[in-house]
Amino acid sequence: MTSRGSLPFDPIQRAADLWEERVGPARTMATVTSVMRVQQILLSQVDGALRPHGLTFARYEALVLLDFARRGSLPMRVMGERLQLHPTSVTNIVDRLQGDGLVRRLPHPTDRRATLVELTVEGRARLEKATDAVTAIDFGLSGLDAGEQEQLTTLLRAVRRAAGDFD
Predict the structure, then answer these.
(1) pLDDT value of position 72
(2) Cα gap 9→21, rounded to integer Å
(3) What's the whole-model pTM score?
(4) Of 25, 43, 83, 108, which one is least surrounded by beta carbons within 10 A?
């Protein structure tokens, strides 16, 4: 999402007012639309911070996932499950990361059908610089203090749990 400057009005409030007039109660529509709009804003800001490092948020997230892996590598199937991505998307992400020398594919030691992915030394170095860039902008999340961030995380966790994201 490219920034075109501030609007002279709150577009979600305007939509909520019109929804109330034409459809009915707008609380849920306004909440969901707010979450979606904030997601676009955050993704734009994070991608902007990652662009100088040759990464998108999806590729950055894959590198972080691999860095957090206990064994230092993960099967591509597990990456897809954890990142909530279709296998084709995981393949595309890994292809790009491998093409940039940030990860390597390895045969799984016990499952010939599976492929492991692990960070390279260059991948770890790029991840460190990219992490400095996104933390320098607080992942694009401005306007909330630490307590409000915790409260928002708690609220969104309840939505994720209700949707079956985790047990």
Answers:
(1) 84
(2) 18
(3) 0.86
(4) 25
